[in-house]
Amino acid sequence: MLRGEGERRTGGRLVGDAGLEPLAVRNEFAGARVVGSVLQAGSMRDLHQHFAPPAPVIVPRQLPSGPAWFVNRVAELAELDAVLADASQRVRLVVVSGLGGVGKTGLGLYWAHRVAAAFPDGQLYADLAAFARGGGTDIDDVLSGFLRAFSVRDEWIPDAFAEKRALFRSLVADRRVLIVLDDVADAAQVRALLPGSSDCVVLVTSRHRLTGLVVDGAVPLRLEPLEAARGVELLGRMLSDARVDEEREAAAEIVRQVGGLPLALRVCGARLAQRRRGLGRLAAALTDERRRLSQLSAEGKPVVEAVFDAAYAGLDPRAAALYRGLGAHPGPEFPLDVLTVVTGGTPDDAADVADVLVEANLLEVLGEDRYRFHALVRLHAEALADAGRARPIIAWYLGRARAADHAVLGRRLRLFEEPVEQVFASRRDALAWLERERANLVAAVRAAALLSWDSTVCQFVEALWAFYNDRFHHADEIEVARLGVQAAVRLGDLPFEARARNQLIRARLRAGEDVAAADVRAAYDVARRSGHRRVESAVLETVGLAHRARGDHDAALGAFEEAREINAEQDNPRGIGLQLLHAGIELRLAGRAGASAERLGEALRVMTEIGDELSQGKVRMELGEALIVLGRLPEARAELARALDVMTDGGLPDRQVRALELLARASTDPAEAERFRRAAEVARA
Fold it and tell me: Which residues form a coiled coil (predicted)?
């Protein structure tokens, strides 16, 4: 009798068609396992067997064509090559992740075609997004497709998923196959399709980081947007290098406006090629943030926006709420504290939700507890931002700025005197925070002005005065002060209008601008009309500085003296000391170094009596320069050394540089002078 004929036929077909080991069939009498035809009979005659010829063996070559334009990502290609060269892993698996539109598929296919010859047994490809069904992906269909690619007929494909997966692993065992899984949503999809042999390489692309696979041993490769030069190069590939060279600055601006995102650059290139419009016109159109995403359309479809819409749609409710909330953030990056404000929970809770956005490549980690949106993602989140979400964020920045102001300068004239939270351990810590959040603070003032939160704008202007007075960020200070003047005028607040005008003039003078006398008079007139004598004295000090800028030493000294008298009237010793300091500087500039040293000595006594160490350091530095002019170099070095200590401890690099340069001038030892000059260069850097 015949046994196992069906199994033998199936086995033979799989041997011939798919290269599997033949199926073994048991001899029922002898118990031995044999391969091939099995016949058990007492006697036989006239037996005829007829089989169709075996189907040809097909080597799957499923890779789609690579990108039409590819800017060589040398570092990333080298990392992929390293995975190919490393046969030590049980399964060679690499996860290329990044923001939607960053070029993950393009990189993967470019590399796959480049190394295809290393995989003579086939290259498999599956776009998992294309298999989406009802919000999920049917991996069963993907696996069946891979089996068919190896000529396994439908009737031989098991129904059970586990058996199907086992058959696939048997098929690719001891074969060199490249498997590209594109647009993967989660790690489970990949695990179901992994071979069991290191002869195969699996390349995964995903908008998610798939950290679960990395834990399992996958090599992570995060793809970043193109840097400026490479972005311009991509436009050149699409349009022609000659055309881009004609408007190279405009090309660089286009790259900057879209944050180097390859998808956005391809859209820009297609529009420029189709309409033959100038690069400058497109660059100008992209400057409008409100319309930028809509500009990145093709055939009437919002190509880039659709990518971000899909990523947002995949977020859980808490992550989606954080995404919308951060859309109201005014600046380009943000600390964990802001995320805590948005979520309303603890820092740990906020970090956990942020991790979801990071995993989805919608949020970038800049460092410990600091995050950033890509430029275009920020615009997408901004369009979804919850109404009113900006107010608590801006209020948080204002509260921290006011706390920093108190830590930096302590007691001084403040028109908005409210209790502040003491969150900074030292002046240096406060300055470091102000420096770190500098762009966000300006953006917060700008946002408050656009929302007509005039009182908030004025409070920001006051809170940032001490920072700008020490760190010399002229452009920031000028913009903030101008917004403050406009807000104060709308409020009808004369004392603050005078103060904001005063701060604007000081910022312009520090920036080296020529300030019109009419602007100075206008500030002083508002101060006089306000009836606030302390504000009037502050504006008089600036009047003196404006006279100094024009070289009118006598007028400057007169203004400083008048301001000193008002401070004496108001019993404000710090104000008296500051006017003595300014007068001492003016006397030195007027060529009266002896009188300068005397006046600065008075200022030093006042600042010492009130315990103002920072102001003591500033006075000692000016006194040191006056003593250099007088030729009293040992005294000058002593004063300057103490000034340097104060500026170093206070975290004031600009003033630290000046102290070092003056010490070099005061030194009689050439080698020592050179050391001071070198130290100044280091501090300046």
Answer: none
Same domain, 130 and 144: yes
- Contact yes or no for 606/571 (Cβ under 8 A): no
Give the residue numbers spanning the domain of 202. 74-222
Same domain, yes or no: 196 and 136: yes
Tens digits of per-residue pLDDT, 636-684?
Answer: 999 999 999 999 988 888 899 999 999 999 999 999 999 999 999 998 8
CB 660 within 8 A of CB 680: yes
DSSP label at residue 606: H
Indicate whether 252 and 275 sit together in one domain. yes
Helix, strand or coil, per DSSP, at residue 415: coil
Q: Which residues contact 386 (CB under 8 A, 6 or more apart)?
A: 321, 324, 325, 327, 328
Supply 585's token pair. Answer: 């500087």
Per the listing, tokens 């696939």 go with 168
**Mean pLDDT over residues 134-156, rounded?**
82
20 to each of 11, 163, 164, 165, 478, how far by Cα in Å?
8, 15, 14, 15, 77
Q: Which residues share a beta bridge with 94?
A: 203, 219
Q: Please count the other Cβ atoms lying within 10 Å of the Cβ belonging to residue 299.
A: 6
Judgement on whether residues 214 and 101 belong to the same structural domain of the protein = yes
Residues 506 and 548: their CA atoms lie apart, in Å, by: 12
- pTM of the complete model beyond 0.85: no
Note whether residue 444 is domain-resident.
no
What is the residue-averaged pLDDT of the chain? 88
**Number of domains the chain is built from:** 4
- Dihedral sign for Cα atoms in the order 149, 155, 158, 160: positive
Residue 327, pLDDT > 90, answer yes
Give the residue carrying structure tokens 């709420």.
321
Residues 184 and 85 in one domain: yes
Measured from the Cβ of residue 480, the count of other Cβ atoms closer than 10 Å reads 27
Residue 110 in any domain: the answer is yes
Report which of 68, 28, 62, 229 is spatially closest to residue 146, judged by C-alpha positions.
Answer: 62
- Do residues 421 and 399 lie in contact, with contact meaning Cβ atoms separated by under 8 Å? yes
Note the helical H segments in 464-592.
465-471, 474-491, 494-510, 517-530, 533-549, 553-569, 573-589
pLDDT of residue 51: 55
**Where are any strands of DSSP class E within 70-143?**
92-97, 123-127, 132-133, 136-137
Q: Is 362 helix (H, G, I), strand (E, B) or coil?
A: coil
In a domain, 552, yes or no: no
Residue 80 and residue 126 in contact, taking contact as beta carbons nearer than 8 Å? no
Q: Each residue of 203-239: b (16+ CB within 10 Å) or e?
A: bbbbbbbbbbbeeeebbebebebbeeebbbbbbbebb
Q: Provide the residue type at 644 as one letter.
A: L
Q: What percent of the chain has pLDDT over 70?
A: 90
Residue 252 belongs to a domain: yes
**198 and 294: one domain?**
no
What 3-state class would DSSP assign to 123?
strand
C-beta separation of 573 from 535 below 8 A: no
